[in-house]
Amino acid sequence: MRKFLGFVVLFGLGFATGAYVLNTYFPKSGGRLVIAAPNSDTQASRVALTNLLQQRPETEPAPTNFETMLRTASQRIAPAVVNIDTAVRAMDWFGNTREVVAGRGSGVIISQDGYVVTNNHVIRVQGRLASQIVVTLQDGRQFSARVLGTDRRNDIALLKIDGTNLPTAQLGDSDRLQVGDWVIAVGNPFGLGTTVTAGIVSAIDRRVELEDLPSGLIQTDAAINQGNSGGALADSRGRLIGINTAIYSPVRANVGIGFAIPINRVRQVVQDILKYGFLSEAYLGIAFVDVSDPQIRERLRRAMPDLQFPRQGMLVIQVERGAPASRAGIQPGDVILQVDGRAVRTTEQMQEMLRLKQPGETVRLRIWREGRQLDLNVTLGTMP
Asked: Which pLDDT score, from 0 to 100, does residue 95 have?
């Protein structure tokens, strides 16, 4: 009994002490626990805080080498990056026709007399060329642009504006890029104007199977958002090494996976556009895989153990009915060894060889078929 009474007394003392502390240091207000306001907020302390906020460092510390690198790169490339606004003709309720802004993107000036590179999808609205394209420079000058040509497969378009002594991007060498190199992305995201983001080269020669994108892309974690398409990807020295083209994201916003078209491919595409104009996509009408792929070779060994397939080439796995390849006699199971006398070693190389061809051209294919080599002439069609 004494132990029980002692326990009750101790419990009561503890409860009373806790209640005193709560009421004293944590007074209740409207059912909430609120810490009491301090009494030290005086006029003198406010004046001291104001003076502190108005102070500026007497000397600015020298920038780090890293900061200097990014600043210099941005200053070199940014003036050559332009905003691109596209418009289409629309009719109102009263039958009046007017230009309506349809999209915004970016581009890069590559010559002082006004050649501008951007993405094919930037200057198209629902697959058709925009009726009006306006290029805005960083200094606010605006020009109407003319489309000289496009390459749909590589998502490149070449524009021309009438200007002289324009700021230009220095072209780099994308073949020298390595994973881990610092890069900056410059463009016009969401129509905000020139914006610079930084990151690294995450991968090179990237192929995205789930997107309608060219292969051999540069992957970067530099932020690329809507409106950055057609803008610049530059190296740490401010040299143009890619044209930003797309992002990969499950949420339709930047998650650190962006893609750019290597500048060395852009060089070739621009030359082709200057020569041919709008590049129609030559059509062969086959699906193919690399016969040197270990998984493909293992499947072939199991399915046809008596055949010794070539070590290099493109294995035809499907031929579309009525396509140029079908009319020339190409069959599933054939292996394409050469195109116009040039050996084919990778799928990217095969695609590039076809890209450089025009509809109506005839190509000579050397194929392997069940141990024999055949030469077939194929007249290319136009991509349907």
From this structure: 56
Q: What is the pLDDT of residues 237-293, one digit of tens each?
A: 999 999 999 888 766 666 778 999 999 999 999 998 998 888 767 789 898 899 999
Residue with tokens 């025009």: 358
Q: In the annotation, is 121 catalytic?
A: yes
229 is catalytic: yes
Token pair in block for residue 321: 């009915």
Does position 88 have pLDDT exceeding 90, yes or no?
A: no
Beta bridge partners of 335: 315, 368
Is the pLDDT score of 322 beyond 80? yes
Spatial separation of the C-alpha atoms in residues 200 and 220, rounded to whole Å:
6
pLDDT for res 4: 56
Query: What are the extents of the domains in the chain?
Result: 1-53, 65-279, 282-382
pLDDT digits over 348-358, tens only?
788 778 877 87
Instruction: Annotate 338-377 with b (16+ C-beta within 10 A) or e (fewer).
Output: bbeeeebeeeeebbbbbbebeeeeebebbbbeeeeeeebe
Contact 77, 186 (CB under 8 A): yes
Catalytic residue among 85, 106, 151, 155: 155
Active site residue 202: no
Q: Where are the alpha helices (DSSP H) in the chain?
A: 2-25, 43-54, 65-77, 263-276, 294-303, 324-328, 347-355
Give the separation between CA 71 and CA 18, rounded to whole angstroms: 59
31 pLDDT more than 60: no
Output the six-digit token pair for 21: 């502390």
Task: Supply the pLDDT for residue 71.
Answer: 92
Active-site residue, selected from the candidate residues 229, 235, 272, 290:
229
Q: Once rounded to an integer, what is the mean pLDDT over residues 66-90? A: 90
Burial of 109 (0-12, 13-18, 19+ CB in 10 A): buried
CATH 3.30.460.80 for domain 282-382, yes or no, is no
**What is the DSSP code string of 49-83?**
HHHHHH---SSPPPPPHHHHHHHHHHHHHGGGEEE
pLDDT attached to residue 64: 82
Q: Domain 65-279, CATH 3.40.50.1010 — does that match?
A: no
